[in-house]
Amino acid sequence: MSDSLPYAAEAEAPLTPDELNVLRKQYIREGKEEATTQTKFNYAWGLIRSKSKHDHQMGVSLLTEIFRNSPERQRECLYYLALGYYKLGEYSKAREYNSKLLEHEPKNLQAESLKHLIEDGKEKPGS
């Protein structure tokens, strides 16, 4: 597993429809319930990067499942769950997951970057 997480700004760039479709097809081919953790994670990552709120919700759902069932992936899941909730406008949940990551890795620059985005988003009118 890589020690490097993408910065939140990088995760704003959505995959092309073809790229997301490759991940979706792999997930479906393996079977939603039988798909490997890596396949689920890849698909969830693609969904989080999407511009669609529905995709963000699906991504958060998959990541939550991985977080609960795969302790070795919890670190990555914390970051992407925080990012997913941020993109959904659920700033308190985003802050909760990001704070858990920062508790374990206080010098994590990506989580620090996301922390500032969450705080800025929270201050927007209507959020």
TrEMBL record:
Q: Give the record's membrane topology.
A: Single-pass membrane protein
> Which Pfam families does this UniProt record tie to the protein?
Fis1_TPR_C, Fis1_TPR_N
Gene Ontology cellular component list: mitochondrial outer membrane; peroxisomal membrane
Statement: the UniProt record of this protein carries the keyword Cell inner membrane: no
Its protein name is Mitochondrial fission 1 protein
Q: What is the lineage of its organism?
A: Eukaryota, Fungi, Fungi incertae sedis, Mucoromycota, Glomeromycotina
- Show the PROSITE patterns listed in the entry: TPR
Ranges: TPR repeats: 75-108
Q: Keyword annotations for this protein?
A: Membrane, Mitochondrion, Mitochondrion outer membrane, TPR repeat, Transmembrane, Transmembrane helix
Q: Name one GO biological process term.
A: mitochondrial fission
Instruction: Kindly give the PANTHER family that the UniProt entry links to this protein.
Output: MITOCHONDRIAL FISSION 1 PROTEIN, TETRATRICOPEPTIDE REPEAT PROTEIN 11 TPR REPEAT PROTEIN 11
